[in-house]
Amino acid sequence: MKYAHSITYKYLFRMSAFTEKKMFKQTRGHRTGAKHFSPNRWQAILFLCCAITGAMYGQSQDTILSPIALKSLSLEDLMNIEVTSVSKHPEKLLDAASAIQVITNDDIRRSGASNIPQALQLADNLDIAQGTSASWNIGARGFNASVGNKLLVLIDGRSVYTPLFSGVIWNMQDVALFDLDRIEVISGPGGTLWGANAVNGVINITSKNAKETQGWYMEGGAGTVLNNFEALRYGGSLSSNTYFRVYGKYFDQNPAVFDNGTGASDSWYRGEGGFRLDAAASTASRFTLQGDIYTGKTNTTDSTQGDAGGGNVIGRWTYSVSDVNELTLQTYYDRTHLIAPFPGSLNVPGGSLGDNLDTYDIDFQDRVHIGEMNQIVWGVESRFTHDVVSDAPVVAFIPNVLNQKLFSVFAQDEIKPTEKLSITLGSKLEHNDYTGYEFEPNARMQYTLADRQMVWAAVSRAVRSPSRYDRDLYQPDPAYSFPYHLIGNTTFISETVITYELGYRAAFGQNVSGSVSTFYNNYDHLRSLDYEIIPPATLNVFFQNALQARTRGVEFSGDYQATDDWRLHCGIDLFAEEVHVIPNNIDLNKGLNETADPTKQLFLRSSLNLPRDIETDLSLRGVGDIQVNQGSTPATVPGYFELDGRVGWHAMPKLELSVTGQNLLHNHHVEYGYPGSTREEIQRSVFGKIAWEM
Predict the structure, then answer these.
(1) How far apart are CA 6 and CA 634, in angstroms?
(2) Digit-coded pLDDT (tens) for 31-50
(3) How is the chain split among helix, strand and coil, in percent rounded to 5?
(4) What superfamily would CATH give domain 2-316+418-693?
(5) Which of 292, 28, 19 is nearest to 146 (CA)?
(6) Domain locations in the chain?
(7) pTM value?
(8) Of 21, 455, 583, 627, which has the fewest Cβ atoms less than 10 A away?
(9) Contact, 341 vs 305, CB < 8 A?
């Protein structure tokens, strides 16, 4: 029975990667070049991290960054960065009552990341597993399967999840990393402010104002896996208060490999261009217009080719009535085009599934202070989507053309009864065409223990509204899947979670900072697989809401400025989950098809500036065993350690040369996928880069 469910995962996994071929074939080998974790090794590493952290907090010397640090921020500067994802208004990172981490532009540059998933590896509160050359599974606090659907991702205020399966197709998302300002990563619900699908976390990617990117920027390079890449950007001004930039970029990436080291033939390439314009009509009024267009193709192991492309345009107007009262109006249009090939086998003919999605969105927000105690943020949003699907022989969506409307209103009040205590209450009311009204409340408390030390707690409710995958997916011809036949379920309802969180964040002097977050999640109405028997011998299978789950965990992150030129970082994630079938219900997969999560992760990073304008960065990550439940029986992806490193040299003030190595500890290792001859592994990669600003 499990195969009937896993085949639907294969369809969507093909759509997101265009590369998965027969990944659920029931073969059982599990060779890997990665090292396994043993309990003793984990205990030793955790003890070492705790010892390092203890040493951090014992240090009290002030640290002043040397001129050689260039664009790097001190830890004190980092804690004072203004973030907006937690409260939808600017606040210092140190004061944000949430499990939030910030990835700065300089963090991305020094890591050598070449795409968004690689940049997100700098966030300790995420689980990132690469399955093929062009596919990643990215989640927070569990449920990180191949069609993960509980993480909301925004790029400059534009939601990039697809209503096809309520997830993110990561190889369709790209940005000019050199023009990013920061990435804010929240683990935990964000439904009150951001709406449905912000169940386990929110990723908010923000680019720089055009005024900050004036002049020419050029970069290029080549390597073993990242075959070649080029990018060009120019920024200028139209007047004393109007600035613009335009950019173009391209990359060509080589394929991943199978466990025997042979190539998987899933190379891919992508080209993208865009613009941004920022104008300030006055000190109070600001306007932004920006857009992107992209296209790319991905080869597959069956010598077919997938196609992805699209474009978007965003307009945003902000008016500051006063320092404490600000209005924002944003609208965007987004177009995505996707062709996913389905090669034939046995009695199943080949073909391609196509999806063309148009999204129109308008969002208004108002922030105002009432008296001395209350800061209120409220807003309304309306979204319209037009989705057109062309069927493949073995997978289809009914109806092929679907128009959907989404409307929401939210309000949140931050109450400050004393200087040290802050209480936040709010909720979002959202209406979708599938389930009607959804209610997502939130209560949050923040208390200042001492100078630059804060404890916070929260209780939140969030929902994951149904997608077309849940309601409309079906198999056009039962003969291709006999005796199983997948049909849609128009009664599928929203998944829900109630989350309890407790956290602590502190900065000690100028050289030590850290945070600890704990959580307990109670999920209901999770997706399951039900069936009905149609005489004489057909079994109709469909999605139902018959699962519940409990998850809990701890997230630790700490930074230590060891010297003026040397910064250390340590992150630890511990996680546990229990999924079970609701009494008097059934799930053909016994609750095993929605999770693929490590119970422990470790992150260690070092950033060191050397004489003669040389900088070195090392990043070690350890991931525990992952149980993958997409075959006939549960299987294991063995835990592994991997190391990334970068050496950069500022040969001139505006000229930088660098060499980056990724996954250096093994020739290739597996991060995701059911064991078998077609499971792919991620290779060691080395590439050189030259970057020049003028």
Answers:
(1) 12
(2) 333 344 344 444 443 333 44
(3) 10, 55, 30
(4) TonB-dependent receptor, beta-barrel domain (2.40.170.20)
(5) 19
(6) 2-316+418-693
(7) 0.89
(8) 583
(9) yes
